[in-house]
């Protein structure tokens, strides 16, 4: 079996488990959710469940796209405006169509709304991308600007999260619109800061 096929199967199993967790959480509530019930709903063994997710919280939230510092290092040496580079880099994280699953994103949002105790876990999962981006921005902006790099990284990844949420809540927006939504969010903040 080729490694590509194996990886596709792994992604599909992870997705099946997450969807099962989301369905059960929306049906029964987060507190009533168990890893055994999720495994049964997904049609996998509890052992298989734990090969993919550490706990029910992780299964609900899934695996967000991860920024690879080596692949993203182009932003350090780019001469383009920082805003343009941020939009290109961040939308590159979600351009993979498998990651842009509108119904699944909506279900995650519904679970987070119903179980606010999961919100910090969700933000912690996204924090890895913010840290990677902050490190890259610090290299680009200079080592004397670590606070600014962290602030810009947090703002930019937060804006991406909002753009994806806005896209998912609309029925008629194409995925390419995320780039436009992200740019608008960042430009609006720039205007407010400079007003």
UniProtKB/TrEMBL annotation:
The highest taxon in the source lineage is Bacteria
- Cite the SUPFAM superfamilies for this sequence: Homeodomain-like
Binding region for DNA:
34-53
Instruction: Identify a single GO molecular function assigned to this protein.
Output: transcription cis-regulatory region binding
Cross-referenced InterPro entries: Homeodomain-like_sf, HTH-type_TetR-like_transc_reg, HTH_TetR
Pfam families, per database record: TetR_N
Q: Which UniProt keywords apply?
A: DNA-binding, Transcription, Transcription regulation
Ranges for domain HTH tetR-type? 11-71
Protein name as annotated: Transcriptional regulator, TetR family
């Amino acid at each position: 079996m080729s490694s590509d096929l194996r990886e596709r199967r792994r992604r599909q199993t992870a997705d099946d488990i997450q969807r099962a967790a989301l369905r059960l959480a929306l049906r029964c509530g987060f507190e009533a959710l168990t890893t055994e019930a999720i495994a049964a709903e997904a049609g996998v063994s509890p052992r298989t469940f734990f090969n993919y997710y550490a706990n029910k919280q992780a299964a609900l939230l899934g695996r967000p796209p991860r920024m690879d510092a080596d692949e993203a290092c182009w932003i350090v040496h780019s001469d383009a405006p920082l805003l343009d580079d941020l939009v290109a880099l961040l939308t590159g994280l979600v351009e993979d169509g498998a990651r842009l699953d509108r119904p699944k994103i909506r279900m995650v949002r519904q679970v987070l709304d119903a179980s606010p105790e999961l919100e910090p876990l969700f933000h912690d999962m996204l924090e890895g991308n913010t840290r990677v981006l902050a490190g890259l921005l610090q290299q680009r902006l200079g080592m004397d600007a670590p606070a600014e790099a962290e602030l810009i990284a947090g703002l930019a990844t937060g804006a991406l999260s909002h753009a994806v949420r806005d896209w998912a809540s609309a029925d008629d927006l194409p995925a390419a619109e995320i780039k436009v939504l992200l740019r608008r969010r960042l430009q609006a903040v720039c205007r407010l800061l400079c007003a």
